[in-house]
């Protein structure tokens, strides 16, 4: 920016042409562009270094469950989960978040709850 201001004063004084000012600005931009890239590279290097130190600190933490340590055993659940004709409406809302929902989950079965935004997935999970 200082180059342009000084160049305008030189043009007014008759010491510089407009073409020379444009050329010097373009050359200056081409010289400074790699310096900007170097600054960006230094920033990325510092971020990578910080990430590496954070990862090293995480890996240096003691194990939560050392090898050979006895762990609690999960009790096996028997039976199915059955939801039958469930309707739910939040306070102050006219539309039901869940409307007459029914399903059964058998033991060992894995299910996924999918649907559009606002279709009641989170309400059902609660």
Distance between the termini: 59 Å
Beta-strand share of residues: 5-15%
Radius of gyration: 34 Å
Shape by Cα distribution: elongated
Look at the helices and sheets and give the structural class.
alpha+beta
Question: How many domains in all?
Answer: 2
Largest sheet entry: 2 strands, antiparallel
Counting DSSP E segments of at least 2 residues, the number of strands comes to 2
Q: Order the strands across the largest sheet as they lie in space.
A: 1-2
What is the mean pLDDT?
Answer: 88
Helix content: 40-55%
Order of helices and strands: HHEEH
DSSP helical segment count: 3
Low-confidence parts:
none
Defining key terms:
126 residues, ATP binding, ABC_transporter-like_ATP-bd, 3 helices, 2 domains, two-stranded antiparallel sheet, single chain, ATP hydrolysis activity, alpha+beta
What does this structure look like?
With 126 residues, this protein is α+β, with helices and mostly antiparallel strands. It folds into two domains: 2-59, no CATH class; 81-114, no CATH class. The protein contains three helices and two strands, in the order ααββα. The protein has a two-stranded antiparallel sheet with strand order 1-2. The mean pLDDT is 88.
Tell me the layout of helices and strands.
Layout: H1 2-13, H2 18-59, E1 81-88, E2 98-105, H3 121-125
Antiparallel strand pairs: 1-2
Helix pairs in contact: 1-2
Subcellular location: Membrane
GO molecular function, one term: ATPase-coupled lipid transmembrane transporter activity
Membrane topology: Multi-pass membrane protein
């Amino acid at each position: 920016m200082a180059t342009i201001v000084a160049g305008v004063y030189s043009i007014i004084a008759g010491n510089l042409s407009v073409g020379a000012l444009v050329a010097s600005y373009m050359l200056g931009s081409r010289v400074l562009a790699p310096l900007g890239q170097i600054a960006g590279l230094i920033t990325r290097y510092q971020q990578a270094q910080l990430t590496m130190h954070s990862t090293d600190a995480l890996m240096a933490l003691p194990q939560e469950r050392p090898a050979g340590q006895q762990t609690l055993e999960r009790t096996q659940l028997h039976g199915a989960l059955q939801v039958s004709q469930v309707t739910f409406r939040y306070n102050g809302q006219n539309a039901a978040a869940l409307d007459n929902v029914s399903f059964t989950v058998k033991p060992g079965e894995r299910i996924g709850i999918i649907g559009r935004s606002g279709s009641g997935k989170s309400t059902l999970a609660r």
